[in-house]
Every structure is written in structure tokens, then in C-alpha cells.
Amino acid sequence: MPDRVRAIGAAVGRELRFVELTAGQARERMRARGVADDVADFVLGWHANPPESAYTVVPTVEQVTGRPPRTFAQWVAEHAAAFRTR
Fold it and tell me: Gene3D superfamilies this protein is in (predicted)?
């Protein structure tokens, strides 16, 4: 996430900060939004220890679209206007 926030900041031309919540803070925010405890536990566990498939590069994008995939930074640069505050 910190790298993604830096990429968004670079695209919009300003420094952004990433503030990570503790697991307890994140759980309380999810509860406040009506998320069930077992779902919150799953989400927190996934973020703490994502499965290998979450960070394994596969050729699916190019196979489906016929075009090579873009990096997150490339995608953000193309959509920078959506991240700018009004």
C-alpha cells in the first residue's frame, strides 16, 4: 500500500501519506460499518499473510485483452484526474 500511495501522489503532483491502522483499529472500523467479525478476521488475515496467488504475475490480462498489462503507476497516471481533490 505505501508504494501505491506514493504512485498516486506522484500522479497528482503532491505528497500523500499512508497511515496504517493497527489490526484492532481496522477491526473496529469494519465493525462500525456492519462487517461481521468472521469477515473482518478473514480480511485482516489475508492482508497479514496474502496467498501466493495475490502477488504472482500471470499472463491473464494479455490473454484476455490482447494487450500487455500496465503497471499500477501507469494506470494511476492515466487516471490521475480521478484522484485529484476538487
Answer: NAD(P)-binding Rossmann-like Domain
pLDDT tens, position by position, 44-54: 999 999 888 88
What single-letter amino acid sits at 58? Answer: V
Count of structural domains within the chain: 1
Q: What are the tens digits of pLDDT across the range 65-76?
A: 999 988 899 999
The answer to whether 36 touches 27, Cβ cutoff 8 Å, is: no
Residues spanned by the domain of 22: 2-83
DSSP H helices, the chain, are 2-12, 23-32, 37-48, 60-65, 72-78, 80-83
Residue 8: what are its φ and ψ, rounded to 5°? Answer: -65, -45
**Are 18 and 1 contacting, i.e. CB atoms less than 8 angstroms apart?**
yes
